[in-house]
Write a structure and sequence with these properties.
Radius of gyration: 24 Å
CATH superfamily of the largest domain: Carbon-nitrogen hydrolase
Distance between the termini: 28 Å
CATH topology of the largest domain: Nitrilase/N-carbamoyl-D-aminoacid amidohydrolase
Number of strands: 12
Largest sheet: 6 strands, mixed
Number of helices: 19
Strand content: 15-25%
Structural class: alpha/beta
Length: about 500
């Protein structure tokens, strides 16, 4: 059992290195092998498989989501020990998913190898997909994201989403594991068929990627172009909501926007909550913000908290919003955040458990917006993603499906400091561009801001905690519909179905 535990820990640590900030994505192609080898005990029993998977999860998630402590302690004002406890509870919860994988692996130890070659990756994808939805979802550090820098590999995401890349990585790992198993004389037959299937799939995906990049590049040249600017104010989180610093904040964004305007930007993007007070659209024309848009002669998309009266409930609803301002200083469009952060922007179960509200005093109480509705303007249509909405693929696809010609992610990642989280968060935006074959603009208060093209190339990006602007020329989508945009997570649903059949088949065989 000690050997199992060591292998699981090593495998989890290897996979953590495949993600930012280390970003050694190539490790993902063999990083699961020690874990699979640790599970490979036909007489090991279900409990050992469960424990091995759980230990792998602890090792991996401790190495990738440790930043929760930093966010809660330094910016949330939560005591360090409490912050550490919350992070550990989160890691324990997330580790349940690989534990389930370990359990099923043990249950199916005697199943056909070719079947397992396909079914085990499907099971892993099903578990990652479930993690993205259960308890509001946290699809963070999904396996496929490790390949964000490998452009030909990730193009398959415009059909399968990130889930297809995860599946490919796992199938290669299982094939490598089979070969190591053979070399160590644990099996007598050479896994030729399994290796050939994995290799053929890998070659097919890369070939598709090379072809697709060429096709997309040719098509993008025909799109209408627009000069865009991204402002990164790098406002210190301790000052951001200080009423005495509001004018200074707007002066910073005014200076950045004027610079972008002089460089020809027709659209300038400010980060989430760049306006540090409740924005009132009917007063913008006569205020400083209206003056800034008139001075730049540009459209400005900015984040701001907002509120409106709800006649149905007879109360004021508060939103985490994005507003589009015209060059004339008018508010011409608004988007309200749809996927709120639990215990950050709202308190779950407060209607059913009144005492929860008392335990979480000070936490935001935002309402949910109407959905992924793009904001139209004369240059095109903007699909807006506020903060961690960019980690939920279906929201981006929904915006493009509803007519968005450009995706914009506005966020404030100052909460994460200089941990791995801002790098991990930026990496996910690359997949939103690839899945929908659309340009993605990202404006983050303290970074990382950037421009990503429709095949996932990062055209420009900023550093962390630097005041900066980016100006670039992009294309506005008018062609290249993708299967993922139109049909969403069909591949993930297929993996869920296959995993369910695999488990049922294994359980039935075991009873016999």
């Amino acid at each position: 059992m000690i050997k199992r535990i060591i292998l699981a820990i090593v495998s989890g640590a290897l996979l953590a290195l495949a993600f930012p900030p280390f970003d050694m994505g190539f490790i993902a192609w063999f990083g699961y092998v020690p874990f699979l080898y640790a599970l490979d005990d036909k007489d090991g029993g279900r409990l050992k498989g469960l424990i091995t998977g759980f230990v792998f999860g602890l090792s991996f998630f401790l190495g990738t989501v440790y930043w929760v402590i930093h966010s809660m302690y330094y910016y949330g004002g939560v005591p360090y020990t409490t912050s550490a406890l919350v992070m550990l509870l989160l890691v324990v919860y997330l580790s349940v998913y690989p534990a389930v994988f370990g359990l099923v692996f043990s249950l199916t130890a005697r199943q056909d190898k070719v079947l397992r070659l396909i079914a085990l990756p499907a099971l892993w994808v099903a578990l990652e997909y479930g993690r993205g939805y259960i308890f509001t979802g946290l699809p963070w550090v999904l396996t496929g994201y490790t390949q964000a820098s490998y452009i030909p590999v990730v193009q398959i995401a415009d059909t399968t989403g990130v889930w297809g890349v995860s599946f490919l990585i796992l199938i290669v790992n299982v094939a490598v594991f089979y070969n190591i198993e053979y070399l160590l004389k644990k099996t007598r037959s050479l896994p030729f068929k399994e290796s050939a299937i994995a290799l053929a799939l890998l070659v097919s995906v890369v070939s598709y990627g090379v072809m697709r990049v060429r096709q997309v590049d040719n098509e993008v040249r025909l799109w209408n172009t627009m000069r865009v600017g991204i402002a990164q104010g790098s406002i210190d989180q301790s000052l951001k909501w200080d009423p005495f610093y509001q004018r200074a904040t707007l002066d910073i964004y005014r200076a950045l926007s004027l610079s972008a305007g002089k460089m020809g930007a027709s659209l300038i993007v400010w980060p989430e909550a760049a306006i540090p007070f409740y924005f009132e659209p009917d007063k913008v024309r006569d205020g400083l913000i209206g003056d800034i848009t008139r001075e730049t002669g540009s459209f400005i998309l900015t984040g701001s908290p907002s509120y409106s009266y709800n006649p149905t409930t007879d109360r004021i609803d508060y939103f985490n919003s994005a507003f589009l301002l015209s060059p004339k200083g008018e508010s011409i469009g608004k988007y309200d955040k749809v996927h709120l952060v639990p215990f950050g922007e709202y308190v779950p179960l407060k209607k059913f458990l009144p005492f929860v509200k008392k335990l979480t005093a000070g936490i935001g109480d935002f309402s949910v917006g109407p959905g992924p509705v793009p904001i139209d303007f004369e240059g095109g249509s903007i699909g807006t993603l506020v903060c961690f909405e960019s980690i939920f693929p279906e929201l981006s696809a929904g915006s493009v499906r509803n007519g968005a010609t450009l995706l914009v992610n506005i966020t404030n990642d100052a909460w994460f400091g200089t941990t791995s989280a801002p790098y991990q968060h930026f990496q996910m935006s690359i997949f939103r561009a690839v899945e929908n074959k659309v340009f993605v603009l990202r404006s983050a208060n303290t970074g990382i801001s950037g421009v990503i093209d429709p095949v996932g190339r990062v055209r420009q990006k900023t550093g962390l905690f630097k005041r900066d602007i980016i100006v670039d020329t992009i294309g506005l989508k008018r062609s290249l519909p993708t299967f993922y945009t139109e049909r969403g997570d069909v591949f993930a649903f297929g993996c869920l179905g296959m995993a369910a059949l695999f488990i049922i088949s294994a359980a039935t065989t075991r009873r016999k």
